[in-house]
Structure formats: C-alpha cells, structure tokens
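Justification of resources, computational component.

The compute hours requested in this renewal are based largely on the per-chain cost of generating structure records like the one below. Each record pairs the submitted sequence with a full structure-token output. That output is archived, and it is also reused by downstream analysis tasks.
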Amino acid sequence: MAKIDVIMPQMGESITEGTLSKWLKKVGDPVKRDEPIFEISTDKVDAEIPAPMAGVLAEVLVQEGQTVAVQTVVARIETDAAAVSAPAPTPAAIVPPVPPPAAPAPPARVEPVPALPLVAPPAPAAAGDESLEDRLRRKSSPLVRKMAAEHQLDLSAIPGSGLAGRVTKGDVLSYLEKGPPPVAPPAAAAPMVPASPVAGAVHLIPGPVVEPWEGDRVEPWSRIRKLTADHMIMSRRVSAHVQSVIEIDYTRVGQLRAAKKADYAGRGVNLTYLAFIAKAVADNLRKHPVLNAAVMGESTVFRREINLGVAVALDWGLIVPVIRHADELSLLGLARAISDLAERARTKRLNPDEIQRGTFSITNPGGFGTFIGLPVLNQPQSAILAVGTIEKRPAVITAPDGTDALGIRTKGMLALSFDHRIVDGADADRFLADLRKSLEGFAENAT
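The structure output for this chain reads:
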C-alpha cells in the first residue's frame, strides 16, 4: 500500500490560499479517482476538488474552515502501490488553461502585480534581492487590489495577516474601519494636532445588536455570502443607483421560441426567453457604449469586449458567470452558454476565470414569478438588467385600420439599474427602447 498526498489546488494564477469549507468524505471512506472529496472557497469561486487517485481516505490534515496556502497537503489517500507507479495527477490540474505568452517566461519567476490606480507603487527590488515572501505579499487577490484602488490605499502600508504577510480582504476592511495604527508622539511634549482622516476611509455604521431567542437557529455566513454582502454594500456606497423600467411584448419571441424549441432540444440546448434577451442586449450594447463601461477615478473606461454576466441563484448564495464576447455568438451559442454555465455553477465546476471580466450583467428574478426587480450594480459595471416574469396578459391591440380591440399578448417587464455618475437617464432610456425594438421585432434569421 502507498499514500498519495492531496493538496490545496491553485484556483487561478493570482490565488495563493484557499479555505477548506467542507469535507465530502470521512476518514476511512473509499474514494474513486476524480470523485469530489472536499470543497474549497477562494476570493473568486467555490469548487469541489476531486481525488487524484482511487483508494481510501486515510488522513485529514486540514479541518473545515481552515485557510491554507496553495500546495499545502490537506489529506492523504491510501491506495495500491502498483496503481501509483506513474505520477498521479493532482487537483492543481483543474487550474484553467492560460493562453501562452508571446515569449516563454522563466519557470520560477513570479511576476509583480500591476500598480494600483491613483497609488504610487513601491520601488522595485533589485534583481535577485526580493524574497519569495515579498513577492507573495505583493501578489494580493484581485478583490483586494480592487478595494485598495477604490479607496486609494497603498497595500504596502496595510499590515497583512495572510500567507507571508499577504494583505487579505479582512485586513483592508479593518484598515478602513480603524484607520492606520497610531504613531507614537515625539519625546518632547508638543501640542497634538488632530490627524486628518485617511483618504477614502469609510466610517462603518454598526448594525443593531441582535441576540438569538430560544428556538432560533444561528447559521454563520458562508464565504460566498460574506463576499456578496461586502460587494453589495460597497456598490450602494460608491455608485449613484437609478432605475428605469420598460414593458416588452414578447409575443413575437414566444412564436419563434415555440417554432425553434424542438430543433434546439435536438441539439441538447434548452431555448429560453433569457437567451433571446441576452442576444438583444449583446447586439445593442455596441450602439450604447456607456452601458458597457466602468468608472476609473474621474474617467470612464469604455470596454471593447462585450462580456455578459448572467446571475445564477444557488442554494448557498449568488454567482455571476460570464459569457465572453457575447456579441459574437448566435442565439444558439448564447442559449448553450447560459445553460452550460448555470449547470456548472450549481455543481461547483466553474473555473475562476469564468466569473471575471464581465462588462454588463443580467439577472432573472422573473424565473421565480417576480413581476419586476431593481438590482444593485455588479461593480465596477455601469449597468445591470433585471428580467421580470413573462406571462400572458390582456392588452389593447390596434388593427391596421386604426380600430382598437382587447387581446391576449405575452408580456413582461425589463428594469435597468445604472450608475448615474456616467449614465444619464436619456442614455438608459434609449438603450431600453432599442432592446424593446429588437425583441418585439426579433428577426427569424437571428435564430
């Protein structure tokens, strides 16, 4: 018999640690090769990690809730020695492929992260003088770098509690709440001048004190719930949220869907109303670039790529996988991408890069019967579209001769939340008007 190490995988090139959130197997349980044995959470994604080899889970070295560095041995699997004569693949193999650079990089080199906007980067160390710990400390997660940029903070000035002193999201939040540590006054007594507040510091208002009553159930937040809460509070704080709502007649879309649904099902794709809406959004964003933009300081970044994030409700939270280059996909391609990403989100098989680089988001509360929703912006995007329930309703229909009659039409509401710092009401309304025109006159050749 032999024992195989199970390691904490690196879920993305900028990730240096992960939290083991749940063991799916117990010590003594048999495991199959590629069978999920534990779950991890990072700043980017939750994922199930498969066993590198079949055998029996012999040791558990990292307990649920612990955060450890990548490549840390978290468990050992006892297996037949003959089965491991060839090197066994490790969970690190699930790291998504990265396109090769123009010239190959030195294998052991860790590249420094780009300098943060509005913050002067620290002076680079001389070649060969920088330690691995120094490089790991500077290689903070994208979430941490984004928080620092938003509040104009220098990461080198924030004490880090992560691996090798790496600054974590909690360190940034604590720094914003408490400010920099006090500096000891000089030996000579001198009048103390009140210090100015830290640039970009936020004075967090504590919530009400809540105590559980007899019979209550207290459930600690999961990592994804904490990240969602922080992101939503930050979004409401930094953006001027405004909403516009428009009613859509989906009768034409409904007819096309009924005509094409069997053909799409034969190709393994479920044709939904959401696919038609995503197609109309992707086709119209190029004409309305400010809806596909982001705020950078006192500038607007107009994104060249059109990458649609589609929110997926999970039992343990909400995640927004991204369809890259959505404007280049047909209706069939969008329908297939929406179905695939939603399924892999629910089964914790998304790669970290599949929830990044979104430029516009769509959420579908109408799937639960909600008439209309007014969502919070998915920072740093400038707009998000909420799809209300689509159903048959009575409507006034005007005949070609100008007479009116009461008829039945398939209708629903679309609500657009936008950042009023860069998107004017007229911009949002023109975008919604074009969406309605595209959906109500959806061309059959667009399918």
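Confidence is low (pLDDT under 50) at residues 82-133, 184-204. DSSP finds eight helices and 19 strands in the chain.
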